């Protein structure tokens, strides 16, 4: 199974990328892991037209190819002003449901303080309607991120519990990935009549 981890900080280096690297190291249930750090790509802000995705030497086709082959995704966003990052929201707007539909996604918020719930709520509420990604019931909020996942060994009890929660969330993501393969197969090979009339969420 192939996992794609998307980190969406607009800074480099970033704590979101640090979390992505840690998750990649722990994702032993997946045979191939790709990390897409969005700020490393030249991407347009989507204007609603498909042609804009590839205009002006956009590197979106490189990302789309990885998403198409993925069996599951991890979406990591910093919390800025109580919101998910513009890069993450732009990524989700550009994602084609032909590449993302019925694939599980683990949502991860990264925050320097003790908040972090708002980006998760935002992504669950309005970010997955048309791309038809399936957010797993579990999500992760990496609070006080500068104090955790800093070394190979946990440096506190909180760090240990967080690492155990990450392991559990990745295990469940792999389970959803396996289960949703059947849904994707049936969606492609036993389509619902007039299926394309329902390509957008209500």
Automatic annotation (TrEMBL):
> Which Gene3D superfamilies does the entry mention?
3.40.50.360
One GO CC annotation, please?
cytosol
Which terms does the record give in the GO molecular function aspect? FMN binding; oxidoreductase activity
Pfam assignment, any one? FMN_red
What are the UniProt keywords, alphabetically? Flavoprotein, FMN
Any idea where the NADPH-dependent FMN reductase-like domain is?
1-143
**Is this entry keyworded Flavoprotein?**
yes
Q: What is this protein called?
A: NAD(P)H-dependent oxidoreductase
């Amino acid at each position: 199974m192939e996992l794609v981890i998307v980190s969406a900080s607009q800074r480099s280096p970033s704590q979101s990328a640090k979390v992505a690297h840690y998750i990649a190291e722990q994702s032993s249930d997946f045979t191939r892991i790709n990390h897409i750090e969005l700020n490393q790509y030249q991407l347009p802000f989507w204007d609603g037209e498909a042609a804009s995705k590839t205009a002006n030497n956009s590197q979106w086709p490189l990302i789309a190819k990885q998403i198409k082959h993925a069996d599951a995704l991890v979406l990591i966003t910093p919390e800025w002003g109580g919101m998910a990052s513009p890069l993450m929201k732009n990524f989700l707007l550009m994602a084609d449901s032909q590449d993302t539909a019925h694939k599980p996604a683990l949502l991860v918020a990264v925050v320097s303080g003790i908040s972090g719930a708002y980006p998760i709520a935002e992504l669950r509420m309005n970010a997955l309607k048309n791309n038809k990604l399936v957010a797993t019931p579990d999500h992760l909020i990496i609070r006080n991120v500068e104090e955790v996942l800093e070394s190979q060994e946990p440096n506190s009890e909180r760090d240990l519990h967080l690492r155990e929660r990450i392991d559990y969330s990745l295990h469940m993501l792999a389970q959803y990935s396996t289960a949703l393969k059947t849904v994707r197969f049936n969606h492609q090979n036993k389509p619902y009549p007039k299926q394309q009339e329902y390509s957008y969420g209500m």
